[in-house]
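User:
I study polymers; will you set down one protein's sequence and backbone structure tokens?

Assistant:
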Amino acid sequence: MSDSSARLLLSRRFGPLFAAQFLGAFNDNLLKSALGVLAAWRLADRTGIDAGALAMLASAVFIAPFVLFSGAAGTLADRMDKSRIARWVKLAELVIVTVGAFGLAIESLGVLLLALFLLGVHSTVFGPLKYAVIPQYLPPEELVAGNALVDAGTFLAILLGTLVGSALALVPGGAIWIGAVAIAAAAAGLWAARAMPPAPPADSGDVPAPRLFADGIAVMASVAREPGLLAPVLALSWFWALGGIVVSGLPVLARETLGASEGSVTLMLSLFALGVGAGSMLANHVMKGTVSARPVPWAALAMAAAAIVVAPGAGDPGAGNAPLADILARPAVWRFLAGLTALAVAGGMFAVPLYALLLQRSRPERRARAIAANNIANALAMVASSLVAATMLGAGWSMPVVIGIFGAATIAVAAWFRRTPPVG
């Protein structure tokens, strides 16, 4: 990490925002992963619902608020002081994780899904403000660095939350430990939010009151009319579509392609999350504080090449539940892991310039609504790509090949983006 990034993290104008978003993402994935483990090992047998179907249900429950409420969240953030909204959101998070901890303790699917939905609402409201507030806190020359740190921190939080939730879910007293960690993280997030500097709206005079579902349509229509905003939104949606398939497919890759135990999932998830974080910081280094779309097509081509490397797989499906040490003894596995890591690094370099462009091109008084439209588009893209991938898998395609096909399609995304003015 550069000295400038370290100074940003230690400054009041950015550090509290970073901490609040990091801890929120950590809690989201702590409870999501714990529910996933419980679904696979206990709740599926108890409820009679297939474990895979439960995992898809949990994912849909968490993503639904992004589609339903992002428009209203963006309108609210453009209308009010963003630091004030952040404090409300973090106070609500304390209550939500307490409900989630209770659901884990009694192993109630209904309570856990309710908590997961409420966490989705929490993230939906916090999402537009966490990006829209960056240009208020940072000068233009630090905009790329701020976005890079937020992206890197988010993926690191996803990794840590997933690892901790998965590790504690089934151990004796694990629900108590998860609850204690989640409540402590939420309390720390509230403390961080209270330290955020004021971030008043740029112009509250023309911002209507939030209208829940109607605002989602309005913000999407507004962005669609502005090519300078639509291009990064669509490109970011492709990033999340491909990334969602890769992350969701890691357990399948481990079991069916590598013939490995669950330890390999942890390894692959760690490499992917750390790779995106490294790519985000590398983008900041390459761009040197200049907001530009020029790295995007090259990063997209790198994503495509890496996904094609992953496509042949490294598997021995007949190997069964092989220990991680045995898996790593195969030379082809190292190529597979290198391709997965390279895909993540290129993804980080792809996303950071796009977020910076979206913030720079959006008008200050409508910036949160532009981010909200991006969140809606990203969520819809993730759902659509999951359905397409599920269809391909059902037709007999392997997970590495599915990833390779989606990755290769990124070449078309790169070509389209390169020809879409203004490139910046």
User: Anything to note?
Assistant: The chain has two domains: 1-200, 213-424. The mean pLDDT is 83. DSSP finds 16 helices and no strands in the chain. The radius of gyration is 21 Å.
